[in-house]
Design brief:
The complex is a heterodimer. Chain A is mostly helical. Helix content of chain A is 56%, strand content 0%. The radius of gyration of chain B is 24 Å and the shape is globular. Classes of the chains: A mainly alpha, B alpha/beta.
């Protein structure tokens, strides 16, 4: 998967969890929880869904490394 | 799988605040509790007990709050400084013309201004009502309407998003004070940070009648609007002693309560009780993150930690190995509240922190911890523990004649009830006397929780007697969620239930029947999900929405949430004699 494909995948999973968020409003480098008012359950569900779809395991201990959209994309790229 | 008891070392038990449970419980009287505070029957003030008193006694230099901003920069606020800031805030209220029975609302993240505003309001003698900052505009508005908000403290960002769009419609709201203002001040608002600098720091705490209203905490029932539970200044007598017993707090302790002050735990045990016990509170503005939490416990040398099941279960998922990387040797006592803590999590605490999590039980209505696993007592994993000194608990059975009576049998399930009269008991639901009276039978407050008591006096939570949902420690009223979904033009009827969830305890699920002209497809499902999240906020909105052609109803047209839940969980359907039209 390339950068864009991963981004599309993440945004799609995000829209399942929080459909009120427009893709254009997702900031690249900010903590998504704060910028998009996701609570910890939302974020947990997002990581699980992205993990499943990309088949890249994101262990809980690494959640802090995927807080922003760009960080999540890089993490998937690196571990795919 | 059954879990064995966790016994306490008798040597270390002798160092706890409460050494012999049976003895203390038997000989307890309220006079002892009253003597812990400076105020008396003639008058008292929560803010005085929390701050001014310690400064007078020579502890003004001690750090009251160590605030860790999202950027991680620590800011220390001493007892003397916090006393001064709360006095400045009281002056602001006075200069505006706020009256002692007016209600000040706070819609704040965990920032020092919230603590200053809450204690400053109490010092002034007005009523404070904290709101959870992750609420969407709808829960904020309904609570401020019911509470007839007079003044609001919030950030510029929260104001613009959650209050400004409807502010004009709330005629009681006279003043809005904003913190962290970055641009030009919005119309009809004042700059709190600037006002705090301008006002003087001498404002003696108003001596209030013990029954004078202090706090308004909103909670949810199965039906109707949120309920404003009223708490009085006298509650401080119980705040102080219950934290001394149940959290083993001692002066100088470094204490971290992870609950947000938007909920009762974050106020009773996140502000008032710890300050009355003269601890240093660590306030963390950031959101949950396992690594960050362990780091905080370690770097801030936390002695006593009060947290919640959802967070503990998330830490468990992150694995104990992560904890092993940190020096957690300062920890002395760890406790949990919000929903029942599963025995696995209690035992996990023992493995990772060398001490079990001590679960305890109480409600918005009780104002303070009622039943607890105490530092000195053996822990039975999965149990909520034993009643605190001064608290009389019973399990009530409903008799055939429609009466209730306390059961004397061990392990008999019934409704958990508390004998009236402890100082922090709620004094009413605002403007809803009837709803308040319904909570009592004779001298007993009925909690709405089903529980049982084993032969040794340990209480065990069984479930709720009503349909309220406990998700991530937040009490959610199904009606509030249903009302927002009903606003959508596609929705004909809706029922909201809580489904068991390994991490959150329960999650909110909505069953929606659509009007004939609408199609229940993926697009509409997402639209409804987005609609409810926008209006209610992520913590309250459903996580799942499913469509049904019809929902099960009684003859009188009441939707049977219980039946939906039983079916969802594959449980027996129970009495369905009143079922008139079934789901499809």
């Amino acid at each position: 998967m390339n950068n864009n494909e991963i981004k599309t995948l993440i945004l799609k999973e995000l829209s399942n969890i929080a459909p009120e968020i427009e893709a254009d409003d997702v900031p690249d480098d900010q903590d998504m929880r704060e910028a998009l008012e996701l609570d910890s359950m939302d974020f947990l569900n997002l990581v699980i869904a992205v993990s499943k779809r990309s088949q890249v395991v994101i262990p809980e201990a690494d959640y802090a490394k995927v807080l922003s959209l760009n960080a999540m994309i890089s993490y998937i790229m690196k571990h795919a | 799988m059954s879990f064995s008891e966790i016994k306490k070392d008798p040597l270390s038990a002798s160092k706890h605040n409460l050494i012999n449970y049976e003895d203390t419980y038997t000989h307890f009287n309220w006079q002892q509790a009253q003597e812990r505070i400076a105020g008396n029957k003639e008058g008292l003030n929560i803010a005085y007990e929390a701050l001014d008193r310690h400064v007078k006694e020579g502890f003004g230099e001690q750090v009251a709050i160590r605030w860790l901003s999202k950027q991680g920069v620590p800011v220390d606020i001493s007892y003397a400084e916090l006393m001064a800031q709360t006095s400045r805030f009281a002056h602001i209220l006075s200069s505006f013309g706020v009256q002692p029975n007016d209600t000040v609302f706070g819609l704040c993240s965990r920032v020092p201004q919230l603590y200053i505003a809450l204690l400053g309001t109490l010092k002034f003698g007005a009523v404070f009502s904290p709101l959870f900052s992750a609420f969407g505009p709808e829960p904020v508005r309904s609570r401020m309407e019911i509470g007839r908000a007079r003044l609001l403290i919030t950030s510029e960002a929260l104001y613009l998003k959650k209050v400004k769009p409807w502010r004009e419609q709330l005629s009681s709201l006279k003043w809005v004070l904003l913190y962290n203002v970055t641009g030009p001040l919005p119309d009809d608002c004042s700059d709190l940070d600037a006002l705090l600098k301008e006002n003087s720091a001498d404002f003696p705490a108003r001596l209030c009648d013990p029954e004078h209203l202090a706090l308004l905490h909103f909670t949810s029932g199965t039906t109707g609007k949120p309920k404003g539970a009223m708490h009085v200044h006298q509650a401080v007598v119980y705040h102080s002693i219950s934290a001394f017993y149940a959290l083993d707090l001692r002066p100088g302790d470094r204490y971290w309560c992870t609950a947000d002050p938007g909920w009762v735990t974050g106020t009773s045990y996140g502000i008032i009780a710890p300050l009355c016990n003269r601890v240093t509170m660590i306030i963390d503005e950031a959101e949950f993150d396992p690594e960050h939490w362990y780091q905080l416990l370690s770097e801030q040398k936390i002695n006593v930690w009060y947290t919640a099941p959802t967070a503990i279960r998330m830490l468990m998922k992150a694995g104990g190995e992560l904890a092993a990387q940190y020096d957690l040797s300062a920890l002395r006592f760890i406790a949990s509240v919000g929903e029942p803590l599963n025995p696995e999590a209690v035992v996990w605490g023992q493995k990772v922190f060398a001490m079990p999590f001590h679960d305890n039980w109480w409600q918005t209505e009780t104002g303070g911890i009622m039943i607890a696993n105490l530092a000195t007592n053996t822990v039975r994993p999965g149990s909520m523990g034993r009643p605190l000194p001064g608290i009389e608990v019973a399990i009530m059975e409903h008799t055939e004649g429609g009466q209730i009576k306390a059961t004397t049998k061990a392990n008999q399930v019934g409704e958990l009830a508390l004998k009236k009269g402890w100082p922090s008991m709620f004094r009413g639901y605002l403007h809803e006397e009837q709803r308040y009276q319904k909570c009592f039978v004779g001298d007993w407050y009925l909690s709405g929780d089903l529980a049982m008591c084993d032969a040794d006096g340990y209480y065990w939570f069984i479930g709720r007697a009503d349909d309220v949902i406990k998700s991530s420690g937040h009490l959610i009223g199904p009606f509030e969620v249903e009302s927002v979904l009903m606003e959508h033009p596609a929705v004909a009827e809706v029922a909201v239930i809580g489904l068991p969830d390994q991490v959150a305890g329960e999650i909110v699920k909505a069953f929606v029947a659509l009007k004939p002209e609408y199609q229940g497809d993926e697009i509409l499902r997402k639209t409804l999900l987005g609609h409810s999240r926008k209006r209610l906020g992520a913590a309250v909105a459903p996580r799942e929405i499913v469509f049904r052609k019809n929902l099960p109803k009684t003859r009188s047209g009441k939707i049977m949430r219980r039946l939906l839940k039983a079916r969802e969980l594959g449980l027996p359907e129970g009495d369905i004699s009143t079922l008139e039209s079934d789901e499809a």
